[in-house]
Amino acid sequence: MDILYRNTRGIGEPIKASQAILKGLAEGGGLYVPTVFPKLDKSVKELAEMDYRGVAYEVMKLFFTDYTEEELRGCIARAYDDKFDTEEIAPLVEADHAYYMELFHGKTIAFKDMALSILPHLMTTAAKKNNQTDEIVILTATSGDTGKAALAGFADVPGTRIIVFYPKNGVSRVQELQMVTEKGKNTTVIGVLGNFDDCQTGVKKMFTDETLKDDMAKRGMTFSSANSINIGRLVPQVAYYVFAYTRLLKEERIKDGEPINFVVPTGNFGNILACYYAKKLGLPVAKMICASNENKVLYDFFETGTYDMRRKFILTSSPSMDILISSNLERLIYHSAGNDAAKNAELMNQLKTDGVYQITGAMKQEMADFVPGFASETDTAEEIRMLYERTGYVIDTHTAVASSVYRSYREKSGDITPTVIVSTASPFKFARSVMSAVRGAEDKRDDFEIIDDLAKTANVSEPPAIREIRTAPVKHNTVCEIADMQKEVRGVLGICKTEE
User: Fold this and answer.
1) Across residues 12-18, what is the average pLDDT?
2) For residue 118, how many other CB atoms are within 10 A of its CB?
3) What is the DSSP annotation of 232-299?
4) What SS3 class is residue 464?
5) Domain 92-109+232-460, CATH 3.40.50.300 — does that match?
6) pLDDT at residue 348, as a whole number
7) Residue range 308-333: average pLDDT?
8) Which terminal residue of the chain, N or C, has fewer Cβ atoms less than 10 Å from its own Cβ?
């Protein structure tokens, strides 16, 4: 069965997967969603006998139906190779009544590697399939992790260029160093004097700016995205939820068909949406526990049915979740409204004009399997310390948000369903916050002294990603105002602004 992709805002006709991957963002600011959800055509028992690459193929082939088997297997083989430091790619670690799925064993030690290792291969394959000769310009906003993972994925890939915007004072020092030391000749990194939502809004505006698109077309360039607004980013994330279930089955931790819970720390809603898509495939998922930090716009939404971004933006120790505009939630809104593009467009316009929208009772009922929770900064630090003291296992701040939310959920609900906590980043990426939590006091030492201490404390080796940035020279030092983002892009691409 061919799966086509439709715009959540209802503009245009459905298109093939490869075309949706190339475009990234749909017309009118919409997102691409499958017209129908496929179902797993292999049993979980069969999948349990496969490695990560095999499971990834069986999941992605269901969504990317216009890719040949040779094309898709080739993309997967090039993506999930020795750039991951463990053969299992996404191992599960049992600690304190839960299974932590470690998604940080890739090149940039964060879960974004799981999808951004394959997206460049999917995209360049799609360009060939669709006879596209334009240079692909990847335009991306990052709250910390997407940026470096995208830079690493697209660095020096022929026919592509990548420009990443990040909030100048809204990422960890390690996150910033990973980005600004990127060596790829086709890469540009720009700090923005604003928060992630400002970066994301600025990028979306450029995607829908017809004058800019026309000026680029004249120069043989076209935009695409590496954010999870791109369906080519989202679908590869579905694979690791299926993989986690099959590992538990293979290790006889669960029985075939037994439901499990997933706890996902999320800000932009892409990671937990991938879990929802896995459930739609037929994976036995019971509850999807949506874990927020103090920027708890998603928690409030699931509790009340009202999405309200009119609130103070809080900088936390889990900066990749410091988001008030959760872009991928639009896909869930569309699906829960019965794939009603008009209803979705109405709500998205309300968000744009008023900063708030309210879903219907029927839509809220469609979301009943999502359980919201949030962790304060104190909760997050306490979770890191307590888990370390109980088990010796050290987690990063984002994973700690999820772990804390799960602990609270389990105590209140009594639910003892087998549960996987999605561990989205290495503790080395947020070493200062992690070690301050472990020690119970703010750590004022140099970042790399703290990292050395973390390696000893956790009894694990420092990842290569950290070793690389210790002495790497800064290659990107541009910082701009929010209003100047398009000006910077035009400058990078050598495109003069068309006169009115």
Assistant:
1) 98
2) 25
3) HHHHHHHHHHHHHHHHHHHTTSS-TT--EEEEEE-SSSHHHHHHHHHHHHT--EEEEEEEE-S--HHH
4) helix
5) no
6) 97
7) 95
8) C
Mean pLDDT over residues 403-432, rounded?
A: 97
* C-alpha to C-alpha distance for 151 and 176, rounded to whole angstroms: 12
What's residue 499's pLDDT?
A: 44
Estimate the crossing angle of helix 210-218 against helix 485-493, to 10 degrees.
10
Report how far apart, in Å, the C-alpha atoms of 239 and of each of 21, 294, 345 are.
Answer: 17, 29, 29
CA distance 282 to 260: 13
Give the chain's mean pLDDT: 96
Across 36-45, 135-144, 145-154, the highest mean pLDDT is recorded for 36-45
Counting other chains too, the contacts that 309-313 makes at CB distance below 8 Å and 24 or more residues apart are 309/197, 309/351, 309/355, 309/356, 310/355, 310/356, 313/195, 313/197
Q: Which residues contact residue 44 at a Cβ distance below 8 angstroms, ignoring those fewer than 6 apart?
A: 242, 245, 246, 249, 256, 257, 283, 284
Q: At 381, list the tokens.
A: 């630090």
For 48, the token pair is 């349990």
- Residue recorded with tokens 């193929």: 57
**Span 231-260, mean pLDDT?**
98
Residue 98 host element (H or E) = strand 98-102
Q: What is the pTM of this model?
A: 0.93
pLDDT at 498: 58
CA–CA separation, 78 and 18 (whole Å): 18
Neighbours of 49 (CB within 10 A): 11
- What does the DSSP 8-state code read for residue 123? H
Secondary element (H or E) of residue 353: helix 341-354
Could you give the CA distance from residue 381 to residue 375 in angstroms, rounded to a whole number?
A: 10
CA neighbor of 182 nearest in space, from 207, 144, 205, 148: 148
Mapped onto helix, strand or coil, the DSSP state of residue 468 is helix
Cα(110)–Cα(234) distance, integer angstroms: 15
Cβ neighbour number for residue 163 with a 10 Å cutoff: 23
Q: What is the pLDDT of residues 93-143, one digit of tens each?
A: 999 999 999 999 999 999 999 999 999 999 999 999 999 999 999 999 998
3-class SS of residue 417: coil
Q: How many residues does the chain have?
A: 500
Instruction: Report which of 68, 193, 166, 71 is spatially closest to residue 125, judged by C-alpha positions.
Output: 71
**Around 351, how many Cα atoms within 13 Å sit in the side-chain half-sphere?**
23
